[in-house]
Amino acid sequence: MAEILLVEDERNLRSLFEDLLTARGHRVVTCESITAARESLKRRLPDAMVVDVKLPDGEGIALLDRRVPAVVMTAFGTLDRAVQALRAGAVDFLVKPFDNARLLASVEEALAAGEELEELELTNGAIASDTSLAKELIGAEGGLASVVVTLPRIAATDATVLINGESGTGKELVSRAIHRSSGRRDGPFVAVNCAALPPSLLESELFGFERGAFTGAHARKVGVIEAASGGTLFLDEIGDMALEAQARLLRVIQERELVRVGGREPVKVDVRLVAATHRDLQALVRAGQFREDLLYRLNVVPIHLPALRERLVDLPALLAHFMERHATRHRLSRVDPSAEAWEWMRRHPWPGNVRELENWVERAVILQRFEVPRQEVTEPPPPEPPPAPATTRAVKSLREAVAEAERAAVVAALEAADGNKAEAARLLGVSYKTLFNKLHEHGIQERQSWS
How far apart, in whole angstroms, are the C-alpha atoms of residue 83 and residue 248? Predict the structure, then answer.
């Protein structure tokens, strides 16, 4: 659900536009003047603005801020006005009267522009600092700390990476983080699950094929390795790749070229390879199911991702992240886990790791309660003690604990950045808009030196 600031002085139009945007699922804040809008912007930066040009106390164009994408509307459409608005940062310029569909389309365009701006800000921040590469990985200062310290150096090279870990531990997420912070970030990121395709189909999918290579090959097809040229190729579950395809992949790594299925001429490729598996490749080598020379080529930079049961310290942060994601996605309220649910989380072995946790949290959001599987409760819970006013709130809710930690992190970042908000946002790995809103959300008073 996005937050839209609507600035329109005509009451009927304001109500109409508010109803349209609310029906689309957005939260709308309305203002009638520039003065009221500026006060609103001081408290919180919205995801987008819809602004009328002619307002009682001036022209709405004065409100435009490149940090917030805006749609400008007016009953007095001229080319000069449109150019002025677009130069000031407006995403679109609408002349009244206009169709409701046009307004909604323009707002969606503005929201998309805002997401791109925030992503660019986050990406630039990650590239500017080695430590901020890992901000997107929950557990960067907890259970993944030993992994995270190596990522900046890995991203700065083109070395082949082999990620090992159980299913659901976040192997693709780590590979994407490496790609986004590497010199290949402007190139494609192509992911292939080797276990999801039969051997014959996987080979043609990876290496492509020439016309007539087999029945049904009516035209040449470029494989994903060629498609990833200039970027990063992520091969998940590489331990399930057939031996023939392994031999072809070895040539790609050694010679930086491939031969399409049914072809003879080599094709030069330029890809950075990141492979992943949950299997023991050394054991597969001993069993004759994996090429030893390929293993050596893949294992240039090994990364091991711990299972969730080995990083339980990250449970609160992961749970809060998934709760926010799915509550927003399903437009439902967040849910706090009970003491019984917390105890179950601590004891549960999490065979599906982070993916299993996310599914459990999403189910809790949909049902609006956390369910603890009865068969996994090995002993009946002790009887509840009689209520004691002095201790009923001894355990903080997840939301309170996360809010306290978030507030402390914001204050620490501002202190470390000597009050510079842009630098503090970069240290936190968030956008300026997010930091701005967090200051007001947590009631953090701004010092005169904070700008």
Answer: 55
Q: Is residue 451 part of a domain?
A: no
> Are 159 and 301 contacting, i.e. CB atoms less than 8 angstroms apart?
yes
d(CA 28, CA 443): 22
Burial (CB < 10 A; 0-12, 13-18, 19+), residue 325, is middle
Identify whether 179 is part of a domain.
yes
Residue that finishes a domain, picked among 124, 150, 179: 124
Tell me the three state secondary structure of residue 348: coil
The span from the first CA to the last CA of the chain, in angstroms, equals 29
Which domain does 419 fall in, by range? Answer: 398-441
- 150 and 102 in one domain? no
Q: How many structural domains comprise the chain?
A: 4
Q: Give the whole-angstrom CA distance, residue 47 versus residue 167.
A: 35
pLDDT 10s digit of each residue in the chain, 451 long? 789 999 999 999 999 999 999 999 999 999 999 999 999 998 888 999 999 999 999 989 889 877 788 898 888 765 566 666 766 667 787 888 888 888 998 899 888 877 766 655 554 444 344 444 445 677 766 678 778 878 888 888 899 999 999 999 999 989 998 998 899 989 999 999 999 888 878 988 899 888 887 777 778 888 899 999 999 999 999 999 999 999 999 999 999 999 888 888 899 999 999 999 999 999 999 999 999 999 999 999 999 999 999 988 888 888 888 888 899 989 999 888 888 888 898 899 999 999 999 999 999 999 999 988 865 444 445 555 555 554 444 556 767 777 777 888 788 778 777 777 877 777 777 787 888 888 888 888 765 445 4
The residue ranges of DSSP E strands in 16-142, in sequence order, are 27-31, 48-52, 54-55, 58-59, 70-74, 90-95
Cβ–Cβ under 8 Å, residues 369 and 401: no
In a domain, 449, yes or no: no
Residues 186 and 283 in one domain: yes
Are residues 86 and 165 both part of a single domain?
A: no
C-beta atoms surrounding 13 within 10 Å: 16
State the alpha helices, DSSP H only, in 136-262: 145-148, 151-155, 171-180, 199-207, 224-227, 243-255
Instruction: Give the pair of three-digit tokens for residue 325.
Output: 């994601």
